[in-house]
């Protein structure tokens, strides 16, 4: 009897033991997390169009081919419009050392004028930002200087400053500095007023307000102006070489056109375009490497 009672007590205990919990089947992991990204299943042409620089390169090559065909088909003389093949041959006709002489002369003046424009423009914009009186006084004068054709005053500058690099650097600076002044002043004025009020409530010195609050907010504006000004610097150097110079790509183009050597003149024009693109990319890379936070998210 006692054994029967013991068995009757143990049976419910066995029945009440919870069944072993089986682990839930693992959910299939999304293919995108473990497997490589799925291949683009679009047709070939839309994928090629999305490749960076492909459409630009294809357009350029197509234009050059049409240019070559048109010149040969209509028998256009080279002193009017040279064929791309003639321009290519003119590159080889000019020695490498001669090319380097002209390129370095133009590049040196462009960089010196560009650097001088930065040295003048940024402090001038800071001074104009601090004083409303100076801003009202200087801004109209800057507009007058910018609106005056530099080609017209370039001979006067050459006569006043003499031969050499100095007048050409000054001419380059006059063409280059205006976008820097305007963009820097705009960037300094775009600082949120709350930060300015906070710095003044903490009695921060004026130089710290300018260097640590206003200038960082102006960096995107400054680099936008630098990208414009670096190309204008090349234009300014060429304009100065047109007026008075014995070397430089601008002088080379002027000399070639006066001798009706149009293929050489076109070759010099291509060199100038390549120089401008290279300097523009240098400014872009400096911003990406040194001030990446100043770029919009789409350019990171």
Write the layout of secondary structure elements.
Blueprint: H1 2-16, H2 31-34, H3 44-49, H4 54-74, H5 84-93, H6 96-130, H7 132-147, H8 150-161, H9 165-189, H10 193-201, H11 206-243, H12 249-258, H13 262-290
Question: Brief overview, please?
Answer:
The chain has a domain at 84-292: MetI-like (MetI-like fold, Orthogonal Bundle), CATH 1.10.3720.10. It has 13 helices and no strands.
Model description:
The chain has helices spanning 2-16, 31-34, 44-49, 54-74, 84-93, 96-130, 132-147, 150-161, 165-189, 193-201, 206-243, 249-258, 262-290. The chain is an all-alpha fold and 300 residues long. It has a domain at 84-292: MetI-like (MetI-like fold), CATH 1.10.3720. The longest helix has 38 residues, at 206-243.
The CATH architecture assignment of the domain at 84-292 turns out to be Orthogonal Bundle
CATH class of the domain at 84-292: Mainly Alpha
- What is the average of the pLDDT values? 81
Which regions are unreliable across 5 or more consecutive residues at pLDDT < 50?
A: 1-16, 28-38
Intertermini distance = 86 Å
Percent range for β-strand residues: under 5%
Tell me the Rg in angstroms. 34 Å
Order of helices and strands: HHHHHHHHHHHHH
Number of helices: 13
Estimate percent helicity: over 70%
Shape: flat
Count of beta strands: 0
């Amino acid at each position: 009897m006692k054994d029967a009672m013991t068995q009757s007590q143990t049976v419910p205990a066995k029945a009440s033991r919870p069944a072993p919990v089986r682990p839930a089947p693992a959910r299939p992991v999304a293919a995108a997390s473990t497997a490589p990204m799925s291949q683009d299943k679009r047709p070939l042409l839309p994928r090629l169009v999305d490749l960076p620089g492909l459409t630009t390169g294809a357009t350029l090559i197509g234009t050059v081919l049409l240019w070559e065909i048109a010149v040969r088909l209509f028998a256009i003389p080279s002193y009017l419009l040279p064929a791309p093949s003639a321009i290519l041959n003119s590159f080889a006709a000019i020695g490498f050392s001669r090319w380097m002489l002209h390129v370095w002369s133009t590049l040196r003046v462009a960089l010196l004028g560009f650097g001088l424009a930065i040295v003048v423009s940024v402090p001038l914009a800071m001074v104009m930002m601090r004083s409303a009186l100076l801003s009202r006084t200087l801004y109209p004068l800057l507009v007058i200087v910018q609106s005056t054709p530099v080609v017209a005053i370039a001979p006067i500058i050459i006569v006043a400053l003499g031969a050499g690099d100095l007048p050409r650097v000054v001419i380059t600076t006059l063409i280059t500095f205006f976008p820097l002044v305007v963009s820097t002043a705009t960037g300094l004025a775009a600082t949120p007023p709350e930060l300015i009020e906070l710095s003044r409530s903490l009695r921060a010195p004026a130089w710290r307000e300018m260097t640590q609050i206003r200038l960082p907010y102006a960096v995107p504006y400054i680099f936008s102006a630098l990208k414009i000004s670096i190309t204008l610097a090349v234009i300014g150097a060429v304009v100065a070489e047109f007026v008075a110079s014995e070397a430089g790509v601008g002088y080379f183009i002027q000399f070639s056109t006066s001798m009706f050597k149009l293929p050489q003149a076109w070759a010099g024009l291509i060199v100038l375009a390549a120089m401008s693109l290279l300097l523009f990319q240098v400014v872009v890379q400096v911003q990406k490497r040194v001030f990446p936070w100043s770029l919009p998210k789409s350019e990171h």
